[in-house]
Design goal:
Elements: E1 4-7, E2 10-13, E3 18-24, E4 34-39, E5 46-51, E6 58-60, E7 68-73, E8 78-83, E9 92-99, E10 111-114, E11 118-123
Parallel strand pairs: 2-11
Antiparallel strand pairs: 1-3, 3-8, 4-5, 4-9, 5-6, 7-8, 9-10, 9-11
């Protein structure tokens, strides 16, 4: 059974950085786009970033452009989210997700497998 396991969350001061990692089990990791979503308390889960199967195409929500970078290493079955210049409004549980195909989307329906999430808290 394929699973996604996130790590790297924690508490950081505003302006700081964190790097989230997501490792997938299974041998077909490179066949899928991957993405990151986040959910703050009392809010809907929202799209953060996505990357195509090859890593050649990346997409970001406007609020993180220029601050976050998504990348992947297919040899390690892993996807990463480098988060710089963090703001208190970035506080949320961050979820790794596997796409339903090779092309990255930005809707929840574009992703069919989810990790359990990792907490990111940014203090002011």
């Amino acid at each position: 059974q394929v699973q996604l396991v996130e790590s790297g969350g924690g508490l950081v001061q505003a302006g700081g950085s964190l790097r989230l990692s997501c490792e997938a089990s299974g041998r077909t990791f490179s066949n899928y786009a991957m993405g990151w979503f986040r959910q703050a308390p009392g809010k809907e889960r929202e799209f953060v970033a996505a990357i195509s199967w090859s890593g050649g195409n990346t997409y970001y929500t406007d609020s993180v452009k220029g601050r976050f970078t998504i990348s992947r290493d297919n040899a390690k079955n892993s996807v990463y989210l480098q988060m710089n210049s963090l703001k208190p409004e970035d506080t949320a549980v961050y979820y790794c997700a596997r796409g339903v195909g090779v092309v990255a989307g930005s809707n929840r329906d574009d992703f069919g497998l989810w990790g359990q999430g990792t907490q990111v808290t940014v203090s002011s």
